[in-house]
Write a structure and sequence with these properties.
Blueprint: H1 8-13, H2 27-52, H3 56-61, H4 67-73
Protein backbone atom coordinates (compact mmCIF):
# COMPACT_ATOMS: atom_id res chain seq x y z
CA UNK A 1 0.00 0.00 0.00
CA UNK A 2 2.85 2.38 0.63
CA UNK A 3 3.76 2.38 -3.06
CA UNK A 4 0.38 3.83 -4.03
CA UNK A 5 0.28 6.64 -1.49
CA UNK A 6 1.68 10.04 -2.43
CA UNK A 7 4.81 10.89 -0.57
CA UNK A 8 4.79 13.85 1.77
CA UNK A 9 7.24 15.73 -0.50
CA UNK A 10 5.07 15.49 -3.63
CA UNK A 11 1.89 16.23 -1.66
CA UNK A 12 3.41 19.40 -0.25
CA UNK A 13 4.48 20.62 -3.73
CA UNK A 14 1.13 19.97 -5.41
CA UNK A 15 -0.98 23.12 -5.33
CA UNK A 16 -4.38 23.52 -6.87
CA UNK A 17 -4.35 25.58 -10.06
CA UNK A 18 -7.35 27.60 -11.15
CA UNK A 19 -8.64 26.55 -14.55
CA UNK A 20 -10.89 29.18 -16.16
CA UNK A 21 -14.22 27.79 -17.26
CA UNK A 22 -17.79 28.71 -18.11
CA UNK A 23 -20.00 25.89 -16.96
CA UNK A 24 -18.23 22.77 -18.23
CA UNK A 25 -16.44 24.57 -21.08
CA UNK A 26 -12.70 25.16 -20.65
CA UNK A 27 -10.41 26.95 -23.14
CA UNK A 28 -8.74 23.66 -24.10
CA UNK A 29 -12.09 22.00 -24.83
CA UNK A 30 -13.31 24.98 -26.87
CA UNK A 31 -10.12 25.13 -28.95
CA UNK A 32 -10.65 21.51 -30.01
CA UNK A 33 -14.03 22.42 -31.50
CA UNK A 34 -13.03 25.64 -33.32
CA UNK A 35 -11.91 24.06 -36.65
CA UNK A 36 -15.01 21.89 -36.88
CA UNK A 37 -17.35 24.76 -36.03
CA UNK A 38 -15.62 27.02 -38.57
CA UNK A 39 -16.05 24.39 -41.28
CA UNK A 40 -19.73 23.87 -40.49
CA UNK A 41 -20.28 27.64 -40.26
CA UNK A 42 -18.71 28.17 -43.68
CA UNK A 43 -20.83 25.40 -45.17
CA UNK A 44 -23.96 26.90 -43.61
CA UNK A 45 -23.10 30.36 -44.98
CA UNK A 46 -22.56 28.86 -48.43
CA UNK A 47 -25.89 27.05 -48.24
CA UNK A 48 -27.76 30.16 -47.19
CA UNK A 49 -26.12 32.12 -50.01
CA UNK A 50 -27.01 29.43 -52.54
CA UNK A 51 -30.64 29.04 -51.52
CA UNK A 52 -31.28 32.76 -50.94
CA UNK A 53 -29.59 33.97 -54.15
CA UNK A 54 -32.92 34.13 -56.02
CA UNK A 55 -34.61 36.30 -53.36
CA UNK A 56 -34.48 39.93 -54.60
CA UNK A 57 -34.10 41.50 -51.14
CA UNK A 58 -31.16 39.21 -50.27
CA UNK A 59 -29.63 39.84 -53.68
CA UNK A 60 -29.70 43.64 -53.35
CA UNK A 61 -28.82 43.84 -49.65
CA UNK A 62 -26.10 41.18 -49.50
CA UNK A 63 -24.87 39.78 -52.78
CA UNK A 64 -24.53 43.05 -54.71
CA UNK A 65 -22.36 44.50 -51.92
CA UNK A 66 -19.69 41.79 -52.23
CA UNK A 67 -17.23 43.04 -54.90
CA UNK A 68 -16.36 39.68 -56.49
CA UNK A 69 -19.91 38.33 -56.45
CA UNK A 70 -21.62 41.58 -57.54
CA UNK A 71 -20.50 41.26 -61.16
CA UNK A 72 -22.15 37.83 -61.40
CA UNK A 73 -25.50 38.95 -59.92
CA UNK A 74 -25.66 42.33 -61.65
CA UNK A 75 -28.78 42.67 -63.79
CA UNK A 76 -27.72 43.40 -67.37
CA UNK A 77 -31.21 43.12 -68.87
CA UNK A 78 -32.19 46.25 -70.83
CA UNK A 79 -35.12 48.23 -69.42
CA UNK A 80 -37.16 47.55 -72.58
CA UNK A 81 -37.04 43.79 -71.95
CA UNK A 82 -38.19 43.92 -68.33
CA UNK A 83 -41.90 43.13 -67.83
CA UNK A 84 -42.47 45.53 -64.94
Amino acid sequence: MGAFRPSLVSAAKAKPVFQPHVGRFTPQAVLKWVPSLALWGGAAAGGVTLFMSSVPLFKTDVLLKIPVVASYFEDKTPESDKPF
